[in-house]
Amino acid sequence: MIGEQELKKMKKAALLINVSRGTIIDEQALCQALKNGEIAGAALDVFEQEPPATENPLFDLDNIIFSPHNAALTDEALIAMATHSAQGIVDCLNGIKPKYVVNPEVFGLYRTKST
């Protein structure tokens, strides 16, 4: 979604912040924009590759800051994650397919009782 062309449209004083998904920003284009002063800086909580490679060129820049993929760690998000996890366990124990199944292809292999 955000590549070279989009970065060129930003003001030189702009700060780009990404706390959503790493793949929405072309990291190579972002690195060039930061190096060339096309934007002032960036802050990333996510990367195209998780975890990021230690040789990621963004780590060499001084006009970018990083956080350890924790933007979703609000009280509300933590409560929702715990509630959804608990409900998924209850559903499995009752032989019901949970709402948030990561690998649905194996769900039927481990049912506790038939439905």
TrEMBL record:
Q: Keyword NAD: yes or no?
A: yes
EC number annotated for this UniProt entry: 1.1.1.26
Q: Which GO terms describe its molecular function?
A: glyoxylate reductase (NADH) activity; NAD binding
Instruction: Please give the InterPro entries that the UniProt record associates with this protein.
Output: D-iso_2-hydroxyacid_DH_PdxB, D-isomer_DH_NAD-bd, NAD(P)-bd_dom_sf
Domain of life, per UniProt, equals Bacteria
Q: Which UniProt keywords apply?
A: NAD, Oxidoreductase
Q: Which residues form the D-isomer specific 2-hydroxyacid dehydrogenase NAD-binding domain?
A: 1-71
Q: What class of enzyme is it?
A: oxidoreductase
Q: Which family does it belong to?
A: Belongs to the D-isomer specific 2-hydroxyacid dehydrogenase family.
Which PANTHER family does the record match to this protein? Answer: D-ISOMER SPECIFIC 2-HYDROXYACID DEHYDROGENASE CATALYTIC DOMAIN-CONTAINING PROTEIN-RELATED, D-ISOMER SPECIFIC 2-HYDROXYACID DEHYDROGENASE FAMILY PROTEIN (AFU_ORTHOLOGUE AFUA_1G13630)
UniProt-recorded name of the protein: Glyoxylate reductase
